[in-house]
From TrEMBL:
InterPro entries: Spo11/TopoVI_A, Spo11/TopoVI_A_N, Spo11/TopoVI_A_sf, TOPRIM_Topo6A/Spo11, WH-like_DNA-bd_sf. The active site is at Y52. Gene3D superfamilies: 3.40.1360.10, Winged helix-like DNA-binding domain superfamily/Winged helix DNA-binding domain. It is an enzyme of class 5 (isomerase). The keyword Transmembrane does not apply. It comes from Trichomonascus ciferrii. This is DNA topoisomerase (ATP-hydrolyzing).
């Protein structure tokens, strides 16, 4: 049993050559059995459910997620096709109409406040109901998102609370296909992690290479935060920031002409050893004023 990747073929052996190989093989078989039962009984499970089915075998949630990803690559399907979903994580604020795979229609209103994004397994179609909507704004951090919900009008706001899960990426992708005329914007920290998060929304993730076409927003534009937008609140780069920045500069997508602004932010950060976080702007001035200034010429 094996799987192909872009750079090499990893083979699962039985019996394994060592304890680690044997454990991984057993974990893959465990996931395959769980998935078979889910598909047979039309039951949907979360990544967390899988981990808790055998905590001793999987050892950690991260390792359980890795095994599920391996099974997806082996079978050339996404998690949704295996009835495996992430627990609800992302939030959306706006007037939307969502259609589920079962045919149900869900209406979301700004009067409801921020709403958890339904799982990718349930989401089949998404549309904005407010004709006055000027843009869709993807926000990196939940605290910033919550502040903007009360102060930015005529917009749909979405946050994945950091690196987005598949459900959040699918909602953004569905909305961008339904509304190609509406600008899709991203407000992230001026640091390597913020830029990488933007890249996941726009170009996809290495963890879902075969299904990124259903999970991306190719027209997503970076509007901030820029390192030079607020110089008095700079934060020092740490060792992880440097490693992530150099790694990011080696990716193909960051070298594209349309990613010049993001590439410039990384170069500035490396040169100065500084980064700018949206929380700093929020603590010093009106974050909604900052966003409105960035979007008032759309």
């Amino acid at each position: 049993m094996g799987r192909a990747s872009a750079s090499a073929r990893n083979v699962l052996r039985f019996p394994g050559q060592n304890l680690q190989e044997s454990r991984r093989f057993t974990a893959v078989i465990k996931v395959l059995c769980l998935v078979r039962d889910c598909l047979k009984n039309n039951v949907v499970v979360t990544n967390r459910d899988i981990y808790y089915r055998d905590v001793v075998l999987f050892e950690s949630q991260r390792k359980a997620n890795s095994i599920v990803d391996s099974v997806c690559r082996m079978l050339n399907v996404d998690r949704v096709s295996l009835n495996v979903v992430a627990a609800a994580k992302g939030l959306v604020h706006g007037n939307l109409k969502l259609c589920t795979a079962s045919g149900d229609v869900v209406h979301i209103s700004t009067l409801d406040g921020p709403v958890l994004i339904p799982s990718a397994h349930d989401l089949e179609f998404a549309r904005i109901c407010d004709e006055d909507t000027k843009f869709v704004l993807i926000v990196e951090k939940e605290a910033v998102f919550n502040e903007l919900c009360n102060n930015v009008a005529n917009a749909v706001l979405i946050t994945g609370k950091g690196y987005p899960d598949i459900a959040t990426r699918r909602l953004v992708s569905c909305l961008s296909r339904s509304h190609p005329q509406i600008p899709f914007l991203a407000a992230v920290d001026s640091d390597p992690h913020g830029i990488r998060i933007l890249g996941v929304y726009r170009f996809g993730s290495n963890r879902t290479p075969n299904h990124n076409h259903n999970l991306i927003c190719p027209e997503l534009r970076h509007i901030g935060v820029s390192l030079f937008d607020y110089e008095q609140g700079w934060v020092e780069y740490n060792e992880q920031d440097y490693r992530t920045a150099f790694s990011l500069l080696k990716t193909d997508w960051i070298q594209l002409p349309e990613m010049l602004d993001c590439r410039r932010e990384i170069h500035r950060g490396l040169f100065l050893g500084k980064k700018a976080e949206m929380n700093v702007i929020s603590n010093s001035s009106s974050l909604s004023t900052y966003i409105n200034h960035k979007t008032n010429h759309l």
